Amino acid sequence: MVFKTFDDLPALAAAFGGLVFRDIADDTLYVQDTRHNAWHHYRWVPGKREIVYLERMEGALPLVTQVYPP
After folding, report:
1. CA 35 – CA 46 distance, rounded (Å)
2. pLDDT at 1
3. What is the DSSP string of 2-69?
């Protein structure tokens, strides 16, 4: 089951037991679900008050950088 919203990056990382990455082109977030061998795509809502789910990623990821943990 994919969680739809998170309050911050530590909560997002803790839910999936891993790292959080940021797309350098559009600032969306990617997290790896190691239990199901999948990547999930998230984004900040305007004002960065919460992180919301966009989609499960298929194929290659765009160019990303690790944002959590720093």
Report:
1. 30
2. 55
3. ---EESSHHHHHHHHTS-EEEETTT--EEEEETTTTEEEEEEEPTTSS-EEEEEEE-S---SEEEEE-
CA 20, 6, 40, 52 torsion-angle sign = negative
Cβ proximity of 22 and 65 under 8 Å:
yes
Q: Are the C-beta atoms of 29 and 62 separated by less than 8 Å?
A: no
Tens of pLDDT, residue by residue over 3-58, are 789 999 999 999 988 899 999 999 999 998 888 888 999 999 988 889 999 999 98
Amino acid at 13: A
